[in-house]
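sanity check this chain:
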Amino acid sequence: MQTPARTATAPDPEDAVYFPVKIQGMERLWNLWSERGQQRILGVEQSTVPDAYVNGLIFAVKKDQLSAFDEREGPAYQRIKIPFENVSFYLDNHRDFVIQGDQSVDVFIYSPRKTSNFYFDKGHNQKKIAMSYLNVVRTGCVEVDRKHQLNSLFINDCFMTMGLDGYLIEDDREEPRYPRYPSTLLKKAIDSGNTEKAEEIQTFIEQEWKHYLNTIYEKWGF
């Protein structure tokens, strides 16, 4: 959800609009393992827990673009359809914009493929969550909340549904393993000679990143 991380591999589609939503019947689990990064990766699965939900962003794509998204997500994920009635919007005008009258809407979410080699369960507790990745996820929650003026509603839902219980966290911030960590993205942009991108990320770090970190430290306590 955090803009620099989301756009690291590909820019946002032209005229893309992102709306904060809650999806009922799903839960966050740290159930994928990146061998290359030596860290757990967050996934979203259908839940059997009553009243379970996750929050995130919804955006429109054309049907002929879905195969490209499938390819981008790779073999670790599968695209599953979510009943539209399971989607609730934080702001009513966002729902009206998406529906646009009686227009039917198909909603999809990418969920870990349990048969893939990337999938692990909680039993593998020696496999840790990298703090660099966790902070990018959490600051993404803060960014969404701030941009849509949700008065911490989105942040609170992230806190309630982050699913950290039972997992170990490793502080790798001095040498971040997550490739989309702001300082890593900045170094990559500088090394590649992409001055415009480097300035964009530097501005994000100076003007937003530090404030977002303060918010998550206040909310999570670490």
The mean pLDDT is 88. Helices lie at 3-6, 66-73, 92-99, 131-147, 153-161, 182-191, 195-220. Strands lie at 19-24, 26-34, 39-46, 53-58, 77-82, 87-89, 107-112, 129-130, 169-170.
